[in-house]
Every structure is written in structure tokens, then in C-alpha cells.
Amino acid sequence: MSESMDASFSDGGVNGGAAGGSTRLRDAADLIEVMGVAFSDEQIEAITADPAPGVIIAGAGTGKTTVMAARVVWLVGRGVVTPERVLGLTFTRKATGELAARTQAALAKLAPDDERHCAVQTYDGFASRLMGEFGAWIGSDASERVLSSVEPYILADKVLRDPGSLPGHLADKGWSTLTRAIVNLESRVQSHLIADETIVADAGRFIERLDQAPLWRGNPYRSLVDARQVVEERLDLLGLCQRYRQAKRRESVVEFADQMAGAVGLATRLPGVGRALRERYGLVVVDEFQDTSVAQVTLLSLLFGAQGGIAEYPITAVGDPLQAIYTWRGAAADNIYSFHRWFPSASQRTYTLSINRRSGAHILDAANAVATQVRADPQLGAGLAVELRPADQAPESTVVVREFLTVDEEVEWLADDLVEAHRRGEHERWDQVAILVRRNRDVGPVLQACRARLVPIAVQEVGGLLSVEA
Q: Is the alpha carbon torsion for 206, 211, 213, 216 positive or negative?
């Protein structure tokens, strides 16, 4: 790449060089005073670590967002970086707002008159901005529109309605099943950065091995027949994905997974993009690292880590392998175990947050018992997942286990117990109580039962709200 191209990449907000201003934080005691939080020793260790690659394994309720904000404040207060040179990445807009608000509130205590802000974005937003700023160098169409959450299924439906019969192995599949399958497979292909040719070749090798398997009385085992059918269906589905991909190109639309894969290609082909980003940002803080996809962690590594030839870049990742929830859409939970391979450093720094500040000892004992098998699984990073401990001033807690014959019986008991606990004064306000459900469709019956008892209730997640019948 030419020097002139590098220079053009560096325009538009790049602020290289060391942070200016005097150092305001001398030690951890100053940080505690500024933040107004009595940090534990393990939190202080993670917050005040040297500005180098490091991963924080933060168990549930251990204050990871507060620690992330405090780490930014610490490095700003020590004069290592200025606020506008901090990049924070999270998964959701809600998490982005929370991290940005906490960080800015803490920085305001450090320097009330400083109006500079950190750049906090979602992973998808970061990739989108990267393509918008630098994509023209690889011929990316800036006019491409990002599909909404529903539009991919509408477009997949249009692909299925094109003239021509469905591939033979999919002929017995329902229309809605195929529509979802097209969108899901396409998302996984992009999130895992897998070429179609690789899928076809792997499928061919797998079928060859099936053909070589021993027979039972001259016929293949039923499980092998079923396995072959799954592979053949996937190959036919891949053909539909290719038609779906062509439809996206014709209509100049993309999905977030497409933009992430495109950003990886951009960073791979143009190393100057990484150089520009490293000049612009002096610190990167990454949230929910256990839910990053192959494409996401590859992009970060190209810009700030090993694949970009970078060592000792100050990137801090936070996550918990026991809280991985996005594997169904391409996330690779083992990314967090491989952090130091993606982001090398002379001393591999791994920190843990294990003191849960939300729950009492009995609840944590139950949680740890449930997670025992997961923590011991070598494929899930045995020894890395955190066993939770209660805080010194942990509230009293009780774990109640009950069995019910029907869902209705369970919901009625839950609502009655909630009302009775309020009558006994176990909670002063209704907003001190939360009801967690495993599936969005369970929200409706709980909502109706509580309303029937005049219990004020609000649905937190949009998915749960949409599941409630009007």
C-alpha cells in the first residue's frame, strides 16, 4: 500500500501520540475515591493491570461493567490514554448505552470539565462503520442497505418462490422451515468465514467415510443413513443460500454477518486499515468475549492482535464461558480460551472476578453445583470458568425447589407466592422483584396471573413482550 493511501486512512479524527494532561490517579485508593466503589482485591488487580493484552473471566454478578469502566478511568487518570482514544465494543445497544453511561459518569468525576467521550459501539456497528469509511478501497458498494431483523426471511421466501422446483432432498420440507434454514445457514457461513467450496469438500469426504462403514446384513445402519441425509440436505440448502446471496447482491442489501465478513476481508487486504485504527485508538475494551464469532475475533486480531502482526497492544477482553448464549448464531465459545493466541503478550495476563454481589450463599452454592460438569469439561476450558463466591455482606438467601403437574399450576403458585412474600414484607417495593423465564412464550401466562392479583408488572425484553397476546 502506498504512503498516500495510509495518510488518507489516518484522516478524520485520528489522534495519535501519548495522552496529554497531568496524571490524576496515583494509586488504587485514588481510583476508589473517584469511582465511589469499594473494589475487591481481584477487581483492583484487573483494573490496574499494565496496558497490555489481558482477559478478565468475570462470573455472573461480579461487576464486570463497573470494572470495565474503572479500567478506562484508571488508564485515563494515569495519563496512558485520553478519553476519545478509547474504543469499547459490546453486543447490544442496551449494553453499549450502559457501558458508555458508566464510563462517562466515572470520567466526569475524574475531570468534570472534560467533555471528551469514549467511542462505545456494538460489534456490528463497528464493522458497519469500518466498511463505510474504508470499504471503497476494495470496491464495496456504499449504497448497500442493512436488512432489518424480518427482511432476511422475506427475501429467502422470494428466493424459494423463484421458478424451478426445490432440490430433491428438500422437497418434503415445510416452507417456513426452509426459509429459516436458508437465513440461519447463510449467517453461520459468514460468521465462521467458511467458503462454500470448503463445505462441499468436507461433505464429500464425510459421505465417502459413510460409504466405507461396515454394513449390517448387507445394509447400512439407520444412523448412517440419517447422517447421509442430513449432509445431502445441507448441500442442497447451500445451493439455496447461494441464490439467496445473489438476491442480496441484486437488491444491494446486506446482513450484519455480511458486513462483519466484509470487514475481515478489508482488514486482510489492506493492512493500512489496522494501522489507522491503532493510531486512532490507544485502548480497546471488548465485552462478552465468550460470544464473539470467528469473524468478529478474526477482525479484532487483524486490527489489534496476532494476525495483524501486533503484540502488546492494550486490548482488554471481558467474558465468562458459563454465560455463552450466542453459539446458535455463529459464536465460538472457545475464543475466550484462545485469547492469548489471538492477542499475544510477553506475560499472558488472565484475571478472574468471582465475588458475586447479587446473590446469597445458598443461591451461589446451587449455581456452582449446576455448573460443576461444565467447569470440568476440557472442551469448555476446564480450570478457566469461575466458581462464584458470595460477598462479605451478602444478603440471606433461600433456594426452593418444587414440582408441578402442569404449567398452569406452577404459574398460579408463583403468583400466589409473590403476593404472599410482599404481604410478609420480604420486599418493600414491587420493583425489587424479578421473575426470570426460560422462553419468551412463558411470559404471557405469568403476566396474566400477576395482573389477576393486581401485581404491577413490566416485561423487560421485547421478545417477551411480543409473545404476549393482546
A: positive
Q: Give the integer Cα–Cα distance in Å for 267 and 136.
A: 13
Contact call for residues 293 and 332 (beta carbons, < 8 A): yes
Q: Which three cell numbers stand for residue 245?
A: 446471496
Classify 78 as helix, strand or coil.
Answer: coil
Q: Helices marked H in 144-221 — which ranges?
A: 151-160, 175-191, 196-211
The grid cell for 66 is 463497573
Rounded (5°) CA angle 386-391-395: 120
- Contact in structure between 57 and 353 (CB atoms under 8 Å): yes
Q: How far apart are CA 178 and CA 169, in angstroms?
A: 12
Q: How many residues does the chain have?
A: 470
Residues 6+ apart with CB under 8 A from 277: 303, 304
Q: Which residues pair with 139 in a beta bridge?
A: none
Give me the phi and psi of 352, to 5 degrees please.
-125, 145
DSSP assignment string, 226-271: HHHHHHHHHHHHHHHHHHHHHHHHHTTEE-HHHHHHHHHHHHHH-H
In Å, what is the CA distance from 104 to each residue of 50, 129, 429?
A: 22, 22, 30
Question: Cell triple for residue 421?
Answer: 412474600
Q: At what angle do helices 28-35 and 64-77 cross, to 10 degrees?
A: 120
Strands (E), 77-205: 86-90, 119-122, 145-146
Alpha-helical runs (H) found in 270-322: 271-280, 294-304
Nearest of 368, 292, 282, 362 to residue 330 by alpha carbon? 292
d(CA 52, CA 54): 6
407 neighbors 445 (Cβ within 8 angstroms): yes
Query: 289-326: per-residue pLDDT in tens?
Result: 999 999 999 999 999 999 999 999 999 999 998 887 76
Please report the sign of the dihedral spanned by the C-alpha atoms of residue 274, residue 276, residue 279, residue 284: negative
Give the integer Cα–Cα distance in Å for 275 and 260. 19
pTM, two decimal places: 0.85
Listed as ranges, residues in the chain with pLDDT below 70 are 1-23, 164-165, 326-330, 378-384, 461-470
Q: Determine whether 408 is exposed, middle or buried from the number of CB atoms within 10 Å of its CB (0-12, 13-18, 19+).
A: exposed
Strand pairing report for 145-146 and 315-319: unpaired
